[in-house]
Known about the structure:
The protein has 16 helices and 23 strands. By secondary structure, the chain is α+β, with helices and mostly antiparallel strands.
Amino acid sequence: xxxxxxxxxxLESGDGDFQKNTxxxxxxxxxxxxxxxxxxxxxxxxxxxxxxxxxxxQENSGISSTxxxxxxCHKGVGLVAQVFNxxxxxxxxxxxxxxxxxxxxxSGAGVEYAHPVEVKDKTMTLVHNGNLPSVTLLMEFLKDxxxxxxxxxxxxxxxxxxxxxxxxxxKEGKTIEKAIEEIFPLMTGxxxxxIMTKDKLIALRDQFGIRPLxxxxxxxxxxxxxxxxxxxxxxxxxxxxxxPGEMVVVDEQGxxxxxxxxxxxxxxxxxxxxxxxxxxxxxGKSIYEVRKNFGTRLAxxxxxxxxxxIPVPDTAMPVAVGYARASGIPLETGLIKSRYxxxxxxxxxxxxxxxxxxxxxxxxKEVIENKRVIIVDDSLVRGTTSRQIVKMLFETGAKEVHxxxxxxxxxxxxFYGIDLPxxxxxxxxxxxxxxxxxxxxxxxxxxxxYDGMIKSTGLDKSVFCTSCFDGVYPxxxxxxxxxxxxxxx
Length: 489
């Protein structure tokens, strides 16, 4: 499987549609990774960087590289280890590389939707984490240029449109940096983007920094990643985050930084709640420690008389640790996760599909039977999986099942790069907590308070985007405002 130069890489990133994820609670729309370094095996390092970021997307993976003369590209369906092998990595030479893991939403999971996105003349490639809820300004720009129909697909994604718009200006003679500066105000939404040309690696972050992006050093070169957990496996040393509204350019002259617009930090707090790996740091805070604080705060807000605390693996583990320590109730591993369920392309037959959560989680009878159980999870969205977990615990012999959630009720959809469903599918948008508890079948249901969540981070609420909880959207939603319904006062 030799890499191609990807003539058909007019591909998709994160369209603002929330239909696909019907079996799991939440999905993140991608990880980006990039590296510039003379004398470094950049594609191999990118492979291991993407491997560390696998939790942010499991459906497609892709890597582009350049040797200064040509851009190479390979992508495929599946996990990083399924898409790449030793020969493919060797066939991606050069000193610059960008990579991407994708979580698909409405548009599908096939290779035709994988990143990196390339242009027809193979002079640049782009990877994107985030979502533009409105592409109206970009499409008006392309229409003015007479290029609004120059796509090879009928429904171009936000990432394709961004790439096409920047490339239009480059073809007119502008430098890549000037092209980005001109297009930046037209990009209405969230984005952490890496752009690779034959001689440069450029990092770009929206003015609110909703999606994360960090910089590290490695043997005289520079590394960019969605999370700091990707730096440790390759021996890179964390420098700092890419600031909101900032463009960072790396070429043979070194690293150059330009603040394109004034930034105002609004990191999506769901990174702390769910998405980020616990060994990552964001805004100077340990994800693991913040999640432990969530658990401690939950114990302060809801001290339940129970026999055992059980986390839903894996994100809720630090939360359960914090709750168990603060409450004095023993912590146990009561649910065993099948860690390799995503490593097969074999579709389960109907009977297995009907088992739902049992395909992924197995209860330990010795821990659960005849116990008053506290089950801890990070969030409650549709409630389908949570309901199955409660039923499974009772079937295993639990006397009581108390459900604790380490975030407030999710009442509003996301438009900035998380696969949160339509508002009508969100439990908390149409049910009271008592009604949700009845639906789940749990003995009790409690959520961490909004103030408790914020205080657990040790940061001011002004640095976070909390739109899923409070309906406050820092970036204009454009035509998507019609998808948001606010309760009548």
